[in-house]
Amino acid sequence: MVITDTVSRLGYGQTRVTLEPRGEIDAGSVDELAGMVREALCSGAHEVDVDLRDVSFMDTTALKVLEQAREVLSCAGGHLCLRNPQPPVRQLLRLTAFCPGPAGDVDLTR
User: Fold this and answer.
1) Which of 12, 33, 65, 66 has the fewest CB atoms in 10 Å of its CB?
2) What three-state secondary structure class fits 33?
């Protein structure tokens, strides 16, 4: 798995970070995702977007990392948004009730 990130300033004290993982996110690669999420949170980001367009597979270890990020951001008044989930990832999100419905982009804290 490869992750790139983009940081943009939203306004006074607010930062948006976009993470763009690629490939498969599973137990063997989730530490890389966790590290990038941790870095985004430690940077003071209030908005974290995870663009999943290039993620072909994701397991529950990735969901755990995303759930922890959602909780931290929510407590700080921020937001986590999963963007462009592909069909296998979208199905996992629905089956685990991580996000209900057939949504494209999923804002998990609004």
Assistant:
1) 12
2) helix
31 sits in which H/E element = helix 30-42
DSSP string, 39-102: HHHHTT-SEEEEE-TEEEEE-HHHHHHHHHHHHHHHHTT-EEEEES--HHHHHHHHHTTSS-SS
Rounded to a whole number of angstroms, the distance between the first and last alpha carbons of the chain is 28
pLDDT (tens digit per residue) in 53-91: 999 999 999 999 999 999 999 898 888 999 999 999 999
C-alpha torsion sign, points 32, 34, 39, 43: positive
Domain total for the chain?
1
Specify the pTM. Answer: 0.79
Return the CATH number at 84.
3.30.750.24
Strand partners, 79: 47
Name the nearest CA neighbour of 70 among 60, 59, 62, 80.
80
Which domain range does residue 71 map to?
Answer: 2-103
**Quick check: is 74 in a domain?**
yes
